[in-house]
Automatic annotation (TrEMBL):
Claim: Nucleotide-binding is one of the keywords in the record: yes
An example Gene Ontology molecular-function term: microtubule binding
Protein family (similarity comment): Belongs to the TRAFAC class myosin-kinesin ATPase superfamily. Kinesin family.
Keyword tRNA processing: no
Binding site for ATP: 168-175
Span of the entire protein shown here: 1 to 440 of 1103
Compositionally biased tracts (Low complexity): 49-61
TM stretches of this protein: none
Record-given protein name: Kinesin-like protein KIN-8B
Species assigned in the record: Acrasis kona
Length: 440
């Protein structure tokens, strides 16, 4: 297959626009709210064309170089919640953002020596971590999008696979980042989908086919989120069915993963949906998310142990003088990972991560793969086979694939261990620095 080296364009823009009129609109609907559509069109297009968006920030360097890093590791610090402020607000945030690349964890002046003694823990680590980008609590969803998954779109349209992870403890902001919230507008999934179709529609010389699937990995079981429950149950029956569901959860048949020489990793029996426009994809995201939420509200701890994997396959057919030419297939995986707090006990033990019965196997296996990719510069053995999630991502993580990690943290000291572990995890992920090879 003839695959040119991908290129990405980065727009050094900082949209200061607030989402007007669309805040009370449903976040994801079958039909995009017209105000929201206009906002997105304006912002997404301006970012492509570098229109007159003013910025106070230094211009980011272009990433279109031969040795471009294939993993981008970013941190998103959410605002402190009202409850967190009530409990510890006097002390202020536990992390300080030095600049857009450097963050200090547990600054030495965070607590007075007396406070530290009272807490009985050794703190004041004053650790500085450097990342590709740090998003503070004032960053808009659009700003996060433009500096993360937007950078992957050109590559995906050119036949490369790419993955975006939202990592972090439960409550750190993963779902907010990936899906969005009513108050702040759409997150990365809807923004990516809308921008993808904008790009496809702009490109008249090529024909694209967009195919979508949405699954959940829970307890090493793969479930299709786009298959509706078999029965139209009334509320009472639904509660009973949900209880039964929970009992049967572990016995449930998982969809199987297999590898195809041409198509890469495939999940047998997973529904795939050809979509002709962004609205169709947004409706599927809404449908899949509602299936996930049902499980989540039944038992919150369960939802924090599941990974939601949304995949968009983009098939490109080039037509020259009425002859269909080369077909390229790029796959973009957008993943709302399970809560990382379950892995932290083991993460503390160092590089060798041991799987425990109550600890999320996939999340630990992902850490092991990331570590192996970092150590071997993508050349040695990578233990993809150790979990369903990493098997799923075998063709989308490492090698020629681009990866963006958004590690979410709370700035509040109640989340001390979680934030510390997340920063350490993300810090390790930075080590994957294989050079993108020309694939001709
Ligand atoms: P997770 O999916 O990691 O468990 P959520 O995305 O559900 O966490 O976020 C937890 C809470 O924090 C939610 O109420 C969410 O709206 C809020 N939140 C998260 N990130 C942000 C942010 N960047 N700005 C404002 N609120 C946020
Ligand atoms: Mg969540």
């Amino acid at each position: 297959m003839n695959r040119p080296r991908p290129h990405t364009t980065i727009s050094p823009t900082r949209p200061e626009h607030k989402l007007k009129n669309a805040t009370s609109a449903p976040l994801i609907t079958g039909q995009i709210n017209p105000d929201l559509a206009a906002y997105l069109k304006k912002n997404l297009r301006s970012s492509n064309e570098n229109e007159n968006i003013t910025t106070n920030e230094p211009v980011e360097p272009s990433a279109s170089t031969d040795a471009e890093d294939n993993i981008l590791v970013t941190i998103r610090v959410r605002p402190e919640s009202v409850k967190e402020k009530e409990l510890t607000g006097r002390r202020g945030p536990l992390v300080r953002i030095v600049d857009r690349n450097v963050i200090t964890f547990d600054p030495s002046d965070y607590e007075t020596p007396n406070e530290r003694r009272a807490l009985g823990v050794r703190r004041g680590k004053d650790l500085k971590f450097a990342f590709d980008r740090i998003f503070d609590e004032t960053c808009t969803q659009m700003e996060v999008y433009q500096n993360t998954s937007k950078k992957l779109l050109d590559g995906v349209l050119d036949g490369y696979n790419a993955t975006v992870f939202a990592y972090g403890a439960t409550g750190a902001g993963k779902t907010y980042t990936m899906m969005g919230a009513d108050s702040s507008g759409p997150g990365l999934l809807p923004l990516t989908v809308i921008d993808l179709f904008n790009k496809i529609n702009e490109n008249n010389n090529k024909q694209y086919k967009v195919i979508v699937s949405f699954l959940e990995v829970y307890n090493e079981t793969i479930r299709d989120l786009l298959v509706d429950p078999p029965l139209d149950l009334n509320a009472e029956d639904a509660v009973l069915a949900d209880k039964k569901n929970k009992r049967n959860r572990d016995k449930e048949q998982s969809l199987e993963i297999r590898e195809d020489k041409l198509k890469g990793v495939i999940v047998s029996g997973l529904s795939s949906h050809v979509c002709n426009n962004a609205d169709e994809v947004l409706a599927l995201i809404k449908r899949g998310s509602s299936h996930r939420t049902q499980y989540g509200t039944a038992a919150n701890s369960e939802s924090s142990r599941s990974h939601a994997v949304f995949q968009i396959m983009v098939e490109q057919c080039e037509r020259t003088a009425n002859v269909m030419m080369d077909v390229k297939m790029g796959k973009l995986s957008l993943i709302d990972l399970a809560g990382s707090e379950r892995a932290s006990v083991t993460m503390n033990r160092g590089a060798r991560l041991v799987e425990g019965a109550n600890i999320n196997k996939s999340l630990l296996a992902l850490a092991n793969c990331i570590n192996a990719l970092g150590k071997n510069k993508g050349k040695g053995y990578v233990p993809y086979r150790n979990s369903k999630l990493t098997r799923l991502l075998k063709d989308s993580l490492g090698g020629n694939c681009r990866t963006v990690m958004i590690a979410n943290i709370s700035p509040n000291s109640l989340c001390y261990e979680d934030s510390y572990n997340t920063l350490k995890y993300a810090n390790r992920a930075k080590d994957i620095k294989t050079t993108i090879k020309k694939n001709v």
